[in-house]
Amino acid sequence: MFRVTQMVVSLLLKYVEHTGKDVVFLFDQIDKMDEHTIRCFTRLSKCIHHCQAVVVATFSEASDNDPRFNFKINTDNQPYISLAENRNRLLHTAHKQTSPLVLEPTLTNDLFHKKNTIIASEKNTQLMTKEVQTTTTLLESIHKRKLDNLDSEVIDALEESIFTQNYEHALFLINKTSPYMDHLKNKTKVEVWIYIGIGYAFMLKYEKALTLFQYALKNSEDTLQKSEIQLLIALLYTKRLNNPLLGREIIDNALQNIGSLTGNRVEVERTWLYNLKALTFVERRDLVNAYKNCRKALEHIKKGDRSEDAIHIKINLLSNISVLYEYMNKVDASLTKWMKFDKFILQSSPVFTKHYLYRKAGLLYKMKNYLEAIEALKASYKIAAELHDYFHMDIIARGLGAILFEEENFSEAIQWFRCSLNAKYKLLEDEDIPRVVAAIAICFNQLGESHKGMKEIEACLQTQTKGDAAQMVLDMLTQWEHQDNDKWKSYVKWAIQKPDSKLNRPFDLTNLYCERTESS
């Protein structure tokens, strides 16, 4: 999403540059927006000050968590309810970091009239997304008391809102549906509680999520579904509530409950349970038992089908086993397991291949196979460049620069650090630029051209004076003439960032699966 944010903001800036007129960007009802849109708003606000433009944000409702926006509203007519905690934090951050005009909706018309700018209303311009369709269908049925299809309509609407991370909207739908819960089948009620529990979990309200999951578990009449709910509960305890031992106990209970069941879906479910059980051991640093449970999971998935869920967990397992080998310092075994994905390359998406090559390079680097690591990183960078993925171009280029620095190929290292720098400029990611400039300066210093390195840093600090990276570079300058001490070595270690063994996530599972099914 970082790349999407950068592309959207770049397009908006180009529009301002070419229109030749004053422009008003309206972020209408920003408190309804998802986190990615708020990031676009924040980024645009930072970059707009040199343009003939103004950024306007309106708020549609008050929030108990945000006393700055306290004008009254009729909450019954609002399609969303109060902000999720993470979204609210982003709004606070946006308020601190930007200086856009923040207006009540009643004031926007006067502003647009003064600017001679015509903005279409939200109702006329809103695309009929699947979420809008499912919501409209559900609310119309409730309004007209036509409840024959309520079971399917509420699940369709909830599922779409949860999967698009619109959790407040999901809660609004439940508020609207709650008077008619008695009309729903028990199976539907259980699914509703599961979806809302997932929503609360992503909103960081874990206790509420647990309560809903436990209520769903109590009322479910399907043994396999109960194990799926127990998986969610165990996942919360293991990854969010720091209680992997309780998580493991719940998993063992789920495995026992489905012990007599057979079939593809059951084998896939057992695989997920053993996979999570392995994680509970990782959390306790018991890598041996973690590995044993991953192997058990693999045995069960071999008996499963080739559904999307089965392929997803199998890929996840292979990745996890590779990571476990790496944790156990068996890097050669980790690389061997990871390279089982080689056969997917020709059929997979470029996103998968980019991540695959980066991790392959990171493992090769750990094995001190620098030549092949560089080759894999360059291939990964090429794909990122073809995708205009500046975010990962930056990371990959820095890794290449670091390996070349270690190989004492300082001239080529400078070239790759400049590639990283160019990507950061494209991303408008100015705060970390001094760190990359410091890497370039250190390379020049190693080439015996210390004066060039100093000029690089001085030029950078003329435009970028704030932030931790800028302060670190300023401190580094005080040690420029004393490069044989430990302090200087710490600056070099900070500036020359060695490649990791994964790019945020190992690969894009969804893209891999979609590409494979289309080609089959």
Automatic annotation (TrEMBL):
SUPFAM superfamilies documented for this protein: TPR-like (SSF48452)
Matches recorded under PROSITE patterns: TPR
Swiss-Prot/TrEMBL TPR repeat ranges: 190-223
Keywords, comma-separated and alphabetical: TPR repeat
Transmembrane segments: none
Record carries keyword Transcription regulation: no
InterPro entries tied to this protein: TPR-like_helical_dom_sf (IPR011990), TPR_rpt (IPR019734)
Gene3D superfamilies: Tetratricopeptide repeat domain
Stated name of the protein: Uncharacterized protein
